[in-house]
Please model this.
Amino acid sequence: MTTSREQRPLPADGRDDVVARLERGECAAAPGRLDPGAGFEVLREVSQRTNIKLHTVAAAVLDWVLRQKPLPLSVDRDLQAALRRHAHAVDDPDQPG
Model:
């Protein structure tokens, strides 16, 4: 998978529409409301469980959120499980994950 290193130009007001949509909770992954550290841990866990490189998992999740492309089945299954485990850990921090 190849990614472009070129930055997309920002709109005249300096705000990217995708960022604004994420902030308003209009993207598919927004219900998870993960902080960056927890989000990284979820992606890392999915990567390890599926034996798919972390950057490939992250790219698939971004395509899912931003472009509404379906996730690969193994990533979808393990992402949902990791998000449930994370939600459980947040709801009851004294219980092991």
The mean pLDDT is 75. The two ends are 32 Å apart (CA to CA). The chain has four helices and no strands. Helices lie at 17-23, 36-50, 54-67, 73-91.
